[in-house]
Design a protein that fits this description.
Helix content is about 35%, strand content about 25%. It has about 300 residues and is an alpha+beta fold. A hairpin with a 2-residue loop joins β7 and β8. The two termini are about 25 Å apart. Bound molecules: cobalt (II) ion. Cobalt (II) ion binds next to loops.
């Protein structure tokens, strides 16, 4: 059983994640800037009483995930297909949700494929079901509409300050016999008209601190302390550049890299350069299933 106090924090995080996602969905319009929209969504999260569980990510066209605006990001929305991924935490308890926005007007089927897959997966959810049956529902919904699920991206468990906790929730039928246990998970189908596989490509703007080592330089220590305040959750240099100069942040990041305590996540790009859509919700799996985020209702 999950304590009421903890469940309430998950629900609050989920509610803020939903509101911030829907707010951001409206901001993604032709002529709007990636940087401005990203900053506004992150500000909304704080305004509503939450904190970002990771930097807001808006991944366009063949980029499926992990595109996070940089400080001087030049991107202006035009006719992209955008995957907007917003995660919020309240005292470490996370609500994670995502949706797709098509500015071209040509990709509504592709968006519907990931949304239908999420709906089909939601119907399968129950304590003790095979996790592969969730993947199967996702795969069937997406292939049934003539697209492919992205096989090497998956949903995930959620733990306190843990956005990539086990178990992985696959987007295809892995045939595994592993079953769903009590806990919190995020399901995130990705649909594509490309190859169905992504790879890392380009410069990382999402990072995570994966260890603690002492550093000598004063401002590097200050930056380390700032990053410590994220409690191991992903962050981006855009956040650090509000307080520190480029030279300081670059130097600090180089040090963390050399010390082996920095993990960087480059954009995840469709291998066949296909377009990618995404839909995501978070759930509590127990005797009853509780939807933590619900932007699709
Ligand atoms: Co997620």
């Amino acid at each position: 059983m999950i304590e009421k106090e903890i469940m309430d924090k998950y629900r609050k995080a989920g509610m803020i994640a939903k509101k911030s996602l829907l707010y951001g969905k409206e901001l993604i319009r032709k002529g709007a800037s990636m940087l401005d929209v990203t900053n506004k969504i992150e500000a909304k999260i704080f305004e509503l009483g939450g904190k970002p569980a990771f930097p807001v990510q808006i991944s366009c066209n063949e980029i499926a995930a992990h595109y996070c605006a940089i400080t001087d990001d030049p991107l202006i929305f035009n006719d992209q297909l955008c995957c907007l991924d917003v995660g919020v935490h309240v005292d470490g308890y996370i609500g994670d949700n995502a949706c797709s926005v098509d500015l071209s007007g040509k990709n509504s089927d592709l968006i519907r494929a990931s949304e239908e897959a999420l709906r089909a997966a939601t119907e399968v959810l129950a304590l003790g079901v095979k996790i592969s049956s969730i993947g199967k529902a996702i795969e069937n919904a997406i292939t049934g509409m003539g697209f492919k699920p992205v096989k090497n991206l998956s949903g995930h468990g959620l733990s306190r300050y843990g956005v990539h906790a086990p178990p992985a929730i696959p987007n295809f039928d892995t045939k595994s016999n592993e079953v769903l246990e009590e806990g919190f998970i995020a399901i995130e189908p990705f649909a594509t008209d490309g190859s169905g596989m992504i790879h890392e490509k380009g410069k990382a703007s999402v990072c995570e601190m994966i260890g603690k080592k002492s550093v000598r330089t004063g401002f590097v220590r200050d930056i380390q302390k700032e990053i410590d305040s994220f409690n191991g959750l992903p962050f981006c240099t855009r956040w650090l550049l509000r307080k520190y100069s480029y030279a300081q942040v670059n130097f600090a990041m180089m040090q963390f890299r050399q010390l082996g305590i920095l993990r960087e996540y480059p954009p995840l790009v469709e291998r066949g350069n296909g377009l990618v859509s995404q839909a995501e919700n978070s759930f509590y799996i127990g005797k009853e299933i509780i939807q933590i985020t619900n932007p699709y209702l």
